[in-house]
Amino acid sequence: METRHLVLGLVVLVTGIIAVRGVVAIGAGEFGTVARQTAVGAILAAFGIGLYRNWEAIGG
C-alpha cells in the first residue's frame, strides 16, 4: 500500500473519532465542545484531502 493511502486512512480514522466525540457531546448538551470538534475536524479533513491530492507535487 502506498504511503499516501496510509496517510489518508489515518486522517479518515482521526476525523471519524472526532465526529464520534462530537455526537457524544451533542448527547451531553455540550455545544461548545461540538463547535470545537467540528472546527478541528474540518481543518484536519481539509489538510488530509489537500495532502492526498497534492502528494506528487510535494515530493511524496
What's a concise summary of this model?
The chain is mainly alpha-helical and 60 residues long.
3D architecture notes:
- The protein is 82% helix and 0% strand.
- The chain is mostly helical.
- It has one domain.
- The two termini are 14 Å apart.
- The model has no long low-confidence stretch (mean pLDDT 86).
| H/E series | HH
- N/C terminus separation: 14 Å
Mean pLDDT: 86
- The radius of gyration computed from the alpha-carbon positions, rounded to a whole number of angstroms, is 14 Å
> Structural class of the secondary structure composition?
mainly alpha
Q: What's the arrangement of secondary structure elements?
A:
Blueprint: H1 3-28, H2 31-53
Helix pairs in contact: 1-2
Task: Output the keywords.
60 residues; mainly alpha
